From TrEMBL:
Function noted in UniProt: Catalyzes the formation of phosphoribosylamine from phosphoribosylpyrophosphate (PRPP) and glutamine.
Cofactor(s) in the UniProt record: Mg(2+); [4Fe-4S] cluster
Keywords annotated in UniProt: 4Fe-4S, Glutamine amidotransferase, Glycosyltransferase, Iron, Iron-sulfur, Magnesium, Metal-binding, Purine biosynthesis, Transferase
Binding site for Mg(2+): 293, 355-356
Residues the record lists as binding [4Fe-4S] cluster: 246, 392, 442, 445
Gene behind the chain: purF
Pathway(s) per entry: Purine metabolism; IMP biosynthesis via de novo pathway; N(1)-(5-phospho-D-ribosyl)glycinamide from 5-phospho-alpha-D-ribose 1-diphosphate: step 1/2
Reactions performed catalytically: 5-phospho-beta-D-ribosylamine + L-glutamate + diphosphate = 5-phospho-alpha-D-ribose 1-diphosphate + L-glutamine + H2O
Family: In the C-terminal section; belongs to the purine/pyrimidine phosphoribosyltransferase family.
Top EC class of this enzyme: transferase
Pfam families for this protein: GATase_7, Pribosyltran
Entry's EC annotation: 2.4.2.14
Stated name of the protein: Amidophosphoribosyltransferase
Location of the active site: 10 (nucleophile)
Amino acid sequence: MNFTRPHEECGVFGIYNHKEAANLTYLGLYALQHRGQESCGIVSSDGLHLHAHKRMGLVADVFGNPAVFKKLPGSAAIGHVRYSTAGASVEKNVQPIMVDYSRGSIAVAHNGNLVNAQILKAELEAYGSIFQTTMDTEIIIHLLAVARTNSLVDRIVEALNRIKGAYCLLFLTKSRMIAVRDPNGFRPLCLGKLGNAWVVASESCALDLIEATFVREIEPGEMVICTRDGGIKSLFPFKKVAPTPCIFEFVYFARPDSQIFGKNVYLIRKELGRQLAREYPVEADVVISVPDSGMPAAMGYAEEAGIPFELGLIRNHYVGRTFIEPAQSIRHFGVKIKLNPVKELLKGKRVVVIDDSIVRGTTSRKIVKMVRQAGATEVHMRISSPPTSYPCYYGIDTPNRKELISSSHTVEEVCRYITADSLGYLSSEGLVEAVGLSNEVCKACFSGAYPIAFPKPMDNNQRELFEEGDAHNE
Ligand code: AMP
């Protein structure tokens, strides 16, 4: 079986009952662009048929030509932005997936990753299913097609009862839009209202842009069905489990102006910085951040430590996130292309640099060098999360264990590698406390404790992620 590594970062947006459905979805995807920059797409419904436009590229490029919207008529639409690893960056994997099957047309957009995709795919293929993409999302479509129940809702429930993992899903048929969040609630999903239209989005920043009102978050395990009479129906058709929202959404992934899991991301990041200052204080003259993701934490750190915060590194905003660049060769240039120090500010200073995470260590190493070359006398690195030691299986793109520097190196060794004078990571307890959620969270990337285990046997691609021979998932 040739399944690509289960790595995807995505954002979903949907709107039901608005005459500008496709246009508003385009705007929603714009606001969610940070969740995936490789490809995007919109499927609309005019009540009779589904219409799709999807391509590789950024939202502005794929939907840059206004003529595109003439091909997306109707008062309902769903959209998707996606980033995946190099192997799967092909046109056929662009979402939403749209198919015609015996019951009509259906489109689906998915944020998250399934952990039992391999097993289900093998089973479906054994019964004659032919897969057109390498995305595990397609499995959901095949499960829908073979479901024995009658109504669409029942078929979706039947299909989803077979899958395990992280999913925020938007389904669109000619007459209905259905949103589902997995029982663990790994990824965020919220519900909004714009006049008589219902809106669903991965993050609330997408509602803000189209001036929709934030109604509430879609609950873990909830299915929200938008119906023709302008209402919604809410169901909880799955076995209840203790929710485990992803803490890394707060650390890095979500936009700071979003409200997710009941909290504002910016305020949480600032609190992470404050907590970091309490845990790892240092005598210094200036606090700077790695923009943009480290910014709120750096402000919190500076406030708590009583050290001035400055914009010591200036970012070129026309360059995408370095990590997102698929080719290793580009990634090496990445930091310089993206960031430049303000030398006059850093010269002769003891500098604290705040970033949200160290993954491979490449970025921090280059930044420390850059800050030193700008004339800093000391460079102290502070990270507003614990060491990232384990890969994510639930929708955040992390490399395999071997590439995660903290999976095989102590903090002292990482400090030496990045050539900093000192290095301090926020503790796991500090992170959880600062986030302050009353329920459990998924922090598997830091702890290796995976809320949903991989069914045995692990296939080669899954095993490859654990190259150090780890068995933390059971
Ligand atoms: P690295 O050079 O691999 O250590 O990357 C660390 C940088 O990547 C940090 O500045 C983070 O803000 C950023 N980062 C961490 N996780 C991710 C992710 N899943 N996708 C994109 N960027 C990330």
